Structures are given as C-alpha cells and as structure tokens.
C-alpha cells in the first residue's frame, strides 16, 4: 500500500514530512535524485528523462501512485508524462494544483469556468525552469480571471539550501524579493513555487511584509493527497515498506537531510 514521493533533491522532504504526519498508516517511499540536482537549471527534455527514470524506480518499489514533490518536474515534465508516458493503472500527480485551488478558493473537481477571485496581484517565486514553463500561469488561467502574476526566477536559492548555507539562502531570498517588488510593489499574495522554499518561509514573509499572504505547499498537498486516496483507494500500491532512496551518496545526503529537518534521516542507495 505504498505511495511514492519524487524530488530532484531534498526539497521534497517538506512534502514528505507533511504527508507522513497526515497519513501515518501509509508507507511512503521517497526518491531524491540528488546526483542530478538541481533540476531548475536543466532543459525540459532533460527534466522529463530524469523524472521518468525516478518514477519508474518508485513503481519498482510497489508505488502505483507517485507525487512529484518537485515544482520544476511538475511544471516541465508532468503534462507530457501524463499525456504520453504513464501507463494504465498508474498515476503521477503534481504539486501545483492544490496550491492554485487554495489560492482561488476552489474545491477539487470544481470544473466550472474561470471566475474572478479576491486576490488580484500574485508574486510567484520559483526556479528558472518553473518560471520559464509558465505552468503556474496556465493552471491558474483554467480557474481564475483578472489575476496579475509576476514571476521571479530565484537562481541560487536551492543550491544554498542543499549545501546547508542558510546565511547565503536568506540573502538570496531577500535579493529576489527586492527584485520582484521593483516590478510589483504591492503583491497581495505570494506563492512559494519550489518545495525547498518553505524552509525559507519566514525570510520570504519578512521581506514581503505582514500584509502579504504567503502560500506554501506541504500542508495543502497532504490534505489533497488524503482526499484523493479516499476517493481512489485503488491507487494505494502493493508496496509495504517505507524507505528513503537517493541517487547520490547516501551518507552525505542523510547528513544534509538531518540538518534540513533537524532530526535523524537515513537514506539508502536507489
């Protein structure tokens, strides 16, 4: 009854922690492609190839349902995977839709035409690849009209987080927020469009100011997954064992993950 969680590195652990807490009865298998991180500077074909390889490895672990806990993969590869690659009996879901549903105050399955929503000015912070894909704007346009989105590619932030350099990560976040505010001085809401960024949420909030509502993904994705499995229990796969897999050096990744989550985490070779 395992469910897979895929990420390019350590950022997806923010999603992993939330879903494990929300669904303690489900064994989760986490796959971090640390050997090829970060994805945010790769092209779409490369991201597609690497994401497919990771998802296949999770299928081997008995995970019929895989969550792409990576906004770059969700933005650059998911649509192509769902349309051309995922076989019958398997599901691969992304992390954008729960975020957009929360932003537009829509329930899952609400396929009514786009409508005006309360929030009119939205700041999007994401990796360069996610920004270039325009996937967030595309999904938002299906649900809302009249929303101005200003996207800021946050180069360097993921690298700094992965390397454990919190001081550099904070400085980069403040710099990227300043850059965005020069183009959109008064955003009403901000979307942290990378699963690494919740670790910097306090810094984002401080730089944006208290009047800006900051949307982060972990809790939203966990609630959405619980709802999905309640409706589609057949996609709880046959796997029984929870584990954490990495394409990188398991010892080094475990050490960084332990620092990342502030509790002991043990990875094994994928």
What's the topology here?
Blueprint: E1 3-7, H1 13-22, E2 28-32, H2 44-60, E3 65-68, H3 71-76, H4 78-84, E4 91-93, H5 96-104, E5 115-116, E6 121-126, H6 128-133, H7 135-141, E7 144-145, E8 148-153, H8 157-162, H9 166-183, E9 189-192, H10 201-208, E10 213-215, H11 218-231, E11 243-246, H12 250-261, E12 268-269
Parallel strand pairs: 1-2, 1-3, 2-11, 3-4, 5-7, 6-8, 6-9, 9-10, 11-12
Helix pairs in contact: 1-11, 5-7, 9-10
How many beta strands in the DSSP annotation?
A: 12
Estimate nothing, just give the exact number of structural domains.
2
Give the spatial strand order of the biggest sheet. 4-3-1-2-11-12
Average pLDDT confidence is 94
Which spans have pLDDT < 50 for at least 5 consecutive residues? none
What is the CATH topology classification name of the largest domain? Rossmann fold
Instruction: Please name the CATH architecture of the largest domain.
Output: 3-Layer(aba) Sandwich
Percent in strands? 15-25%
User: Largest beta sheet, briefly?
Assistant: 6 strands, parallel
Classify the secondary structure makeup into a structural class. alpha/beta
- Binned, the helix content reads 40-55%
Count of runs of 4 or more consecutive helical residues: 12
What is the CATH level 1 assignment of the largest domain?
Alpha Beta
Q: Ends: how far apart?
A: 19 Å
Q: Compute the gyration radius: what is it? A: 18 Å
Gross morphology: globular
Could you spell the SSE succession in H and E letters?
A: EHEHEHHEHEEHHEEHHEHEHEHE
């Amino acid at each position: 009854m395992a469910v897979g969680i895929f990420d390019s590195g350590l950022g997806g652990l923010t999603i992993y922690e939330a879903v494990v807490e929300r669904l303690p009865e489900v064994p989760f298998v986490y796959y971090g492609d640390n050997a090829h991180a970060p994805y945010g500077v790769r092209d779409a074909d490369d991201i597609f190839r690497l994401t497919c390889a990771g998802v296949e490895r999770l299928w081997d672990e008995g995970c019929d349902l895989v969550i792409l806990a990576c906004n770059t993969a969700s933005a650059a590869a998911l649509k192509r995977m769902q349309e051309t690659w995922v076989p019958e009996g398997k599901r691969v879901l992304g992390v954008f839709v729960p975020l957009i549903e929360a932003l537009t105050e829509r329930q899952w399955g609400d396929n009514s035409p786009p409508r005006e929503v309360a929030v009119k000015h939205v700041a999007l912070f994401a990796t360069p690849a996610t920004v270039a894909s325009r996937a967030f704007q595309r999904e938002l346009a299906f649900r809302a009209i009249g929303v101005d989105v200003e996207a800021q590619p946050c180069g360097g932030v993921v690298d700094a987080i992965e390397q454990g350099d919190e001081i550099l990560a904070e400085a980069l976040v403040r710099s990227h927020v300043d850059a965005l505010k020069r183009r959109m001085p008064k955003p009403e809401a901000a979307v942290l469009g990378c699963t690494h960024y919740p670790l910097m949420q306090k810094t984002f909030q401080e730089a944006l100011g208290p009047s800006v509502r900051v949307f982060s993904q972990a809790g939203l994705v966990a609630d959405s997954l619980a709802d999905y499995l309640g409706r589609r229990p057949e996609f709880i796969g046959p796997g029984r064992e929870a584990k954490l897999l990495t394409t990188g050096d398991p010892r080094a990744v475990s050490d960084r993950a332990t620092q990342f989550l502030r509790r002991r985490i043990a990875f094994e070779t994928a």
